[in-house]
Amino acid sequence: MEYDGLKIVLCVSGSVAAYKSVYLGRELLRRGAEIRVAMTKNSTKFITPLTFRAALSAPVVVDQFENPADFNMQHISWSRWADIVLVAPATANIIAKAAAGIADDFISTIILATETPVLFVPAMNKAMLKNPATQRNIKTAEELGYYVMQTESGNLACGEEGEGRFPKISAIVEYVESLIAEKKNSRVKNS
Ligand SMILES: Cc1cc2nc3c(=O)[nH]c(=O)nc-3n(C[C@H](O)[C@H](O)[C@H](O)COP(=O)(O)O)c2cc1C
């Protein structure tokens, strides 16, 4: 499926899988999506904003208070611009914040401000994922209307084996396609 100008805010949080979102972004671009990148401060320890700027030719924002001269409430303008907010990789932390309605950085504020579908693609250690707090947060996020992808099982970056791997790019793209189709259907139903 071609994305035909689909506007995606790609939100990157502080997981060791952060570099994979560059490949994800490139695949989405290849399919015709337009991309803007929002990063948590912690994600910049794993990969730099420059990598996304250079590899995706996309605007990148980490700190919405960084350029007060251009101040235009970017959390609102970006959340209105987006057809889909794609949080990939999604840390246990960002899912917990979304479940609690916390908006203390650019990404969590976009998530709270947007009216468009939000898809979390988690990646984390198996014990973090299995922790009842994370499981409760995922359930709450889903009850709030957010979409949360299943992780994959296999070798984890921490050296352990189990659930928590960032899903394959093809699986994420497929999920995004199902959201586009759902959005189109609801538009047809509402017209
Ligand atoms: C090397 C390293 C790898 C990490 N990988 C993950 C991860 O894959 N998933 C996760 O939820 N947290 C991971 N963390 C912990 C998060 O970076 C930490 O919870 C951080 O506060 C998340 O911040 P953010 O959600 O604002 O980006 C990792 C930490 C380190 C030091």
Describe the structure in your own words:
The protein has 191 residues and is of the alpha/beta class. The longest helix is centred in the C-terminal third of the chain and has 22 residues. Helix 2 links the parallel strand 2 and strand 3. It is built from eight helices and eight strands, in the order βαβαβαβααβααβββα. It has one domain: Flavin prenyltransferase-like (Rossmann fold, 3-Layer(aba) Sandwich), CATH 3.40.50.1950. Helix 1 runs parallel beside helix 2, helix 3 crosses helix 5 and helix 4 crosses helix 7. The structure holds flavin mononucleotide (FMN). The site of flavin mononucleotide has 15 residues, from helix 4.
Keywords:
8 helices; alpha/beta; six-stranded parallel β-sheet; about 20% strand; Rossmann fold; about 190 residues; globular; binds flavin mononucleotide; two-stranded antiparallel ribbon; about 45% helix
Detail the topology: elements first, then pairings.
Blueprint lengths: L6 E6 L7 H11 L3 E6 L9 H8 L3 E2 L12 H8 L2 E7 L1 H9 L5 H8 L4 E5 L3 H5 L1 H12 L3 E2 L3 E4 L5 E5 L3 H22 L1
Parallel strand pairs: 1-2, 1-4, 2-3, 4-5, 5-6
Antiparallel strand pairs: 7-8
Helix pairs in contact: 1-2, 3-5, 4-7
The structure holds flavin mononucleotide.
Rounded average pLDDT: 92
Trace the largest sheet across and list its strands. Answer: 3-2-1-4-5-6
* CATH architectural arrangement: 3-Layer(aba) Sandwich
Q: CATH superfamily name?
A: Flavin prenyltransferase-like
Q: Which cofactors or ions or other ligands sit in this model? A: flavin mononucleotide
Would you tell me which CATH topology applies?
A: Rossmann fold
Written as H for each helix and E for each strand, in order along the chain, the element string is EHEHEHEHHEHHEEEH
